User: Fold these one by one.
Assistant:
Number 1:
Amino acid sequence: MEKTARAAHSDVELAVLDAPILARGMLTSFLLHLAEAGAFDPVWSDQIHATWARALQASRPVIPVERIRHRRVEMDRAFPVASVIASRDAQDEVLAHCATAEERKNAHVLATALSARAAVIVTDAAFGLTGVMTRLWHDIAVLSADAWCLELLDRHPETVLHGARAHRASLSRGDGSIDGWLTLLREPRTGLPLTAEVLSGQRDRL
């Protein structure tokens, strides 16, 4: 029986977290703290897992393979309905609209979103399926992590603040101050400068 995504929280959206997002530890940690707080429900697949793991090993070869495997296991344990197997119909539909090898390479991400009935794909500029998506009759948004967090702040401000507080409390890195934490969010590898700017205006609640 295929695993399918179902929202753990009935009033929030499902968002596919693509490999370029999950390969960045601080960013993944922040997003998953928001998800744990109930701001959204994350979605991924075995193929997305494999892709981010390869990317992380390539960019950070000093990280032991066992640690990367443990990270994947813990993600699936924390979000047991997040992992989705894309349906054959969804895969065929997306591939039928792919015109290049790069599009076919990323087709599984869109197929996962369709199978999960996700509203959003959170990814980076290299996603490369914009053309395919204009040819498909599906209303799925493609957003950067920063843009997604800003949307969540607009829709679920209290929930996001709760998740942000939990994320800050979870960190052993940094000086422990709000400014130090915001600096970590602004770092290019984390990539949340606009989110950090909004949160800086809520420092009395963080």
Number 2:
Amino acid sequence: MSLMVILICLIAERFLLDHQHLRQMRWLDRFSQWLAQQDSAAWMRQGIMRVVTLLLPPLLLAGIAQQLFANTIFGLLGVVFAGLVLLYTLGPDDPDNRIDAYTRAVEDGDDESIKEIAREIIGDEPPTSEPALSQAVAEGTLFQANQRIFAVLFWFLLLGPMGALLYRLSTRLPQLEYANRDLDFYLNAKQLVVILDWLPARVTAVCYAIAGSFEDALYGWRSFQGRRFDEFSDSNSGTLICTGGGAMRLTTLLDESNEALQDYSHLPQSAMALIWRSLVVFLVIIAVLTFTGIF
């Protein structure tokens, strides 16, 4: 049943890309602001407790609904509820759309759009020159795909709708306005995301390796463990970027671009192609596990 829900949602999402604003979770911002205005005990305002307080109410509601709908109308309402929650938690920004927008900006020579889109993908100030810029966008896409797609599906498979909602809410917490005013809250929220990302990041990295060059992916993973560990803020981003970069043979693509026309805009497109192939691998693995009765 989970496989069917996932397939339907992945297809349905293609028709909902013009309605991304419906999945921005602005209500979480309003809830956090309301909570900050309440006269609560000091221990309730500590970072970790604030994280728990923000997550608990929506997760409890989702868990109750999940149980109530599970056996209603032969489970049909449960399937509908699961599909709606999964659709809500996927994304909200589509990596494919972002890469298309980045490619168009490069073709049009729109430096402002290039910088803005690259900043969104990388999550930081982008490099100012090539090939560092296109390489950073490609690597950022490999990392973002885990948080936008693979990790959501992973937690959905593990815990149902409540798992998908837990993951998406957790990734949203460090972006809240409240996080800008409370460093302790921000650090605890970021650490929660790192914990929730640990297993999905490794599963995604394996899918990258299977869908791309397995030998190069394995070399990339070993290089991260051996000499590139200090380059990354956490092991999840390092594993995804080094393994994914190896799987798409990023170094070879850079060399070929240097020898040709010094055009690097195809690097993010190559990363996106690897992501789609990896998603197929991921779905095949789920199908095998479903047919063997594990899911």
Number 3:
Amino acid sequence: MRVQDIMTRQLETCRADDSLWLAARKMWDHDLGALPVLGGDGRVTSVLTDRDIAMAAYLRGKPLGEVKVSDAMSRRLVTVQPTEPIRIAEDRMRSEQVHRIPVVNEVGSLEGMVTLNDLAHHLQTPASREGLEPAEVARTLSAISSPRTGPSGCAPA
């Protein structure tokens, strides 16, 4: 089974110069926890999560309308291609401790998003389990949920 078989294709996106207010509104209106950030050329440059917005609001102490997506978005981008096996996406989620990965084509244009939820939903029926093992999805969730170490090498307080 390939990433394209389980990825979400209908996505909302944002741009680096959008306000966090606009991004948060899109997330609220569409019940999303993350938005791919597109550059001027339409390629994915980052992912903005609801946690990124919350932390930026807390740390900056400014209204969301005064803070840009570029001030809060991740500086690290993990992607997968649609034709790659699901196992590759799962391995990247686990190793990078991310819940979602943008699916991009060979030139970096957004084609979809694959999430931990997509993996879990695909375990619901035996016919859709191809390429996924429940124990592996549980291991991925465990790895994603483990505390990351901060810049000082210590887990965040």
